[in-house]
Each structure stands twice: as C-alpha cells, then as structure tokens.
Amino acid sequence: MQTLRGTAEHLIRTGWRFWLLGLCKALVPLQAAWVAFSQPVPASCDQLLIQLLLCGSLAVAAAGLAHHWLVSSLLYPLGPSAIVASLCGLLVLLGLGLVPPARCLFALSVPTLGTAQGRRLLLSWSTATLAVTMVPNVLANVGAAGQVLRCVTEGSLESLLNTTHHLHMASRALNPTGRGLTIQAQGNGSVFRLHMLKVTQQVLEDFSDLESLAQAAALGIQRVVTGLFLLGLLVNSARYLHCYLTDLRFDNVYATRKLARQLEEAGATHLLASPPAWLLRAAWPRLSQAELLSCLLRLGLLTLLLVATAVTVATDHVAFLLAQAAVDWAQKLPAVPITLMVKYDAVYTILDFVPFLFNQPPLEKPFHSAHKSLQWELRFTAPGCPLLPARRPLRAAPLAAGLLQLLAGATILLETYARRLRHTIAASFFTAQEARRARHLHARLQLRYDRHRGQQPPLQAPS
What we know:
Membrane topology: Multi-pass membrane protein
Radius of gyration: 42 Å
Distance between the termini: 65 Å
Subcellular location: Membrane
Protein name: Osteoclast stimulatory transmembrane protein
Strand order of the largest sheet: 1-2
Keywords: Membrane, Transmembrane, Transmembrane helix
Organism: Pipistrellus kuhlii
C-alpha cells in the first residue's frame, strides 16, 4: 500500500515538473515577442521582424473588430464600414510601427479595460444592446395586442350593424300589417364604423412611430456613448502614460524587482523588513483588505444592474406572452350562426260576444299569415383585418448583455491586477524612467525609516 502511494506521489510530482517545464518553454517565445514589441529601436533583424509581424497582426485584428462592430452593433452600411475599418487598420499599423509611445499606449489600453473606464464601456454596450433590441420588441408586442383590439372592435361593430339590418328585413316581412314596426340603427352606421377604424388605425400608427423613434434613439445613444467611452479609454491611457513619465510619485507604490535589486546593492534591505501599508508587491497575487472591500462594494452595485436587466428581460417575455395570448384568443373566436324565424298569423272575429253568451269559443277567420327565415353569422373579428403575430424575444441580446455585465463584474475583481499590469507595461517600455522611479521610492522609504527611528525612545543604559 505504501509502495503504491509513493509511486502515485512520484508520478504526480513528475507530471507537475513536466507541466511547469512546458509552461516555461511556452513562455520563452512570448517573452521574446514582448521584449521585441517593447523596444523603441529593434536591436536585431529578428526583433525587427517580430515587431513588424506583431504590428501587422494587431492592425488586421483592429480592422476586423472595427468592421464587425460598425456593421453588427452600430448598424452602419457595409461600404462605409469597410472604408472606416481599413483606415483604422492602416493608422494602427503606422502608429504601432513608427511611434514607440503609441505601442505603449496601445498596450496600456488593454489593461485599462479592466479599470473603471473599461467597466463603463462594457456596461454602456450592455445597456445599449438591451435598449436596441428589447424596447422595439416590447412596443411591437403592444402593437400586436392593439391590433387585436382593433379587429375585435371592427368585427363586433360589423356584426351589430349586420344584426340590425337583418332585424329590419324581418320587420319588412310583416308588411303590410307590420308597417308600424321599425327597427333601425340610430345614426349613420358607415360613418361610425369609419370613425372607429380611424381611431384604432391612429393608435397603431402612434405605436409604430414610437417603436421607430425608440429604436433610432437607442441606436444613436449607443453610437455616441460608445464613441465617447472609446475616446475616454484612449485619453485615460494617455493620461496614465503622461503622469508616469512626468510625476515620480504617480502610481509609485510597488515593490518591484528593480527596487529590490537597488536596495540589495545599497545594503538597505532592512527598509522592506516592515514595509508601509501603502507599499504593494507587484507580483503578489493576493489582494489587500482595502482592495477586497472595494471590490465587494462595487459588486453589490453591479448586482442591482443585473436585477434591472432581469426585470427588463422579464418585461419583454411578459409582453410577448400577453400578445401571443391575445392573438390566439382572437384567432379562436368562433363565428356564431344565428337563425331568425319570423312567423306571423293574424286572425279576426265578428260578433265575438254572441258565442260568449252560449259559452262557445269565438269563431276566428284568418286575415294575414307571414313566414320567413333569416340566417347570418356573428363574427367578432373583421375578415379584412389582419392579426399581427407576436414577436418573440431575442435570446442573443440578453445573453450578450449578460455576458458583458459578467465581464464588467470580472473587471471589478481584476481591477487591482489591471493597475499593476499597467505599471509593468509602462516599466517595460521606459526602463530608464522606471529606474528613476525606483530611486525615488528608495529615498521615500529611507526617509520613512529615518523618521520612524527618530521617534523611538532612546534605549536606557543598564543599571
């Protein structure tokens, strides 16, 4: 038993060792590519080739994503979208290949997506996706229910007028004795019917205009907000790079390897023996208590947005179910057959008091007899009024919005790591500036250490 256990442990350790070795070998070309990409001037032909390949790949990817985004999300035409995407790819290629700070800015924009600015961009995309798809869908289902109301109103009105017409024909069948019986509709039935049709048609047109207006407004807001947030993303990255290059105290709270090397060379490793609370280890995966509390508070706020999204999706489904039920109910309304049989027999008697004296029934003689049968149908929906089908809720839009919101929630947890990654990227591109920042942090730690020693009470001499 112990032999089997030892063999299993040996196999696990061997597999773990091979996995680490393979991971290290896989990271070697990635590290070489990153070194070549972050060099202002390539040191060799290999670095130049790698840099050109990376810049070309990023330009093609940026052009493809821009084209897909313009066509699918913002609903621009194919021709202008292709031209704009091509110009975008060309500008990215020229900027990354010829301007080293542009490469740094492009690299900084990726972790910036994990900060508050990127989270706002993701949430704006999510909200715009829901607004563009669900608001017109809800209005279309309300319009379908309104069409049911129109058809039922029109059909009931026609049936009422038709019934009045047949009753009038039945009264005419009693002529000449039924001339005193008059059945007719008060007012002009055609005018009343046209008025009802105009009212219902106006209501449906208002709903259609509201649907078009809501869709256009949501699309316009999505375009404007997305453009502003993308511009804000680039401006935020540029501001970080500017502050990193001009202010030695900006985001200089990381205990990096360069700082540890400088302290070791200066013989001042004791400065990190009791580090201050604001000093963070750049490669340390754990979050501080303040960072964890901030993440939990932001996740709570994001949960409210998820609840609002769920309510919006539920509203869309409820509107669809109500519209579908109304349409099905209207389609299943039966035509009620009506048969009106008119039977009129008129008789008269002469000197009917004489038979009464002899306790005999009076002698009746027929005067007029009328028999007529009328048939028609009561239809509660007008035959010429088409019922609009209920529009099913789109599944892709809520899934995409939920995925974007989950990504926004992930950025809350990864925001601290994104900030550390921004510092690491800037340090890779500007090594001389990072050395100056490390010396500044060294002096700051030394000053704190000297102040701390000066506040300590002097040691008493032993008696």
